[in-house]
């Protein structure tokens, strides 16, 4: 999995008042949790842009002035009106322990149902998986070549080595929907 390096400034004060003071300095207050330890810090919004405004998932290397911590972004809180990041939550990545993260889904192949007029829809853009950090892929590639009209691929149908799906098995990943054109083609074939 790809990594992004971010400079972090550790802070000693926490709470609502301290977070507002950090935002006045045009920084983003953050928290790093996991492994029984919590660290409060702040980051520059320009450094974090490539992590927030992307469909990809990354392992973040937080640089605390020489000491580095590996983490994954768990949650980003935004201002309800302005597009301003209010707070970021990170979860520490520990060697030998599995980490759960949302990974983007990419469809490959040309579905059989699309060839006869069906419409391919992607229902889940990201799926949450659990694995060791070294086993995490950049994306989950789903082959849709055998997918016919009216058929759906569920999370329970997917098999990836060294990955455990956290997303429920009944969640639909993609489907080929019935369209007028596919109904017309099926009627013509029946005659």
CATH class of the largest domain: Mainly Beta
Assembly type: single chain
Distance between the termini: 52 Å
Order of helices and strands: EHEEHEEEEHEEEEEEH
Low-confidence stretches: none
Secondary structure topology:
Elements: E1 3-10, H1 16-24, E2 28-33, E3 39-43, H2 45-52, E4 59-64, E5 67-78, E6 85-92, E7 99-108, H3 112-115, E8 119-122, E9 126-131, E10 140-143, E11 152-154, E12 164-165, E13 172-177, H4 180-190
Parallel strand pairs: 1-4, 2-6, 7-10
Antiparallel strand pairs: 1-3, 2-3, 4-5, 5-6, 7-9, 8-13, 9-12, 11-13
What report would you give on this structure?
There is one protein chain. It is elongated, with a radius of gyration of 22 Å. By secondary structure, the chain is of the alpha+beta class. The chain folds into two domains: 3-94, Ribosomal Protein L25, Chain P, CATH 2.40.240.10; 100-190, Ribosomal protein L25, C-terminal domain (RNA Polymerase Alpha Subunit, Chain A, domain 2, Beta Complex), CATH 2.170.120.20. The protein has a six-stranded mixed barrel with strand order 1-3-2-6-5-4. It has four helices and 13 strands.
């Amino acid at each position: 999995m790809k990594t992004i390096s971010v400079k972090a400034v550790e802070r000693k004060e926490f709470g609502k008042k301290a977070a507002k003071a950090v935002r006045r300095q045009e920084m983003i207050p953050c928290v790093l949790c996991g492994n029984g330890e919590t660290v409060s810090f702040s980051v520059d919004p320009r450094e974090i842009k490539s992590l927030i405004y992307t469909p990809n998932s990354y392992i973040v290397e937080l640089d605390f002035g020489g000491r580095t911590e590996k983490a994954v972004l768990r949650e980003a809180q935004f201002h309800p009106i302005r597009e301003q990041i209010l707070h970021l939550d990170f979860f520490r990545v520990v060697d030998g322990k599995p980490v759960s993260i949302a990974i983007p889904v990419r469809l490959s192949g040309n579905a059989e149902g699309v060839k006869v007029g069906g419409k391919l829809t992607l229902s889940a853009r990201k799926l949450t998986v659990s694995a060791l950090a070294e086993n995490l892929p950049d994306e989950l590639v789903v082959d849709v070549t055998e997918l016919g009209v009216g058929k759906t691929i569920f999370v329970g149908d997917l098999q990836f080595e060294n990955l455990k799906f956290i997303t429920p098995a009944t969640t639909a990943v993609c489907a080929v929907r019935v369209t007028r054109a596919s109904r017309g083609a099926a009627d013509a074939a029946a005659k």
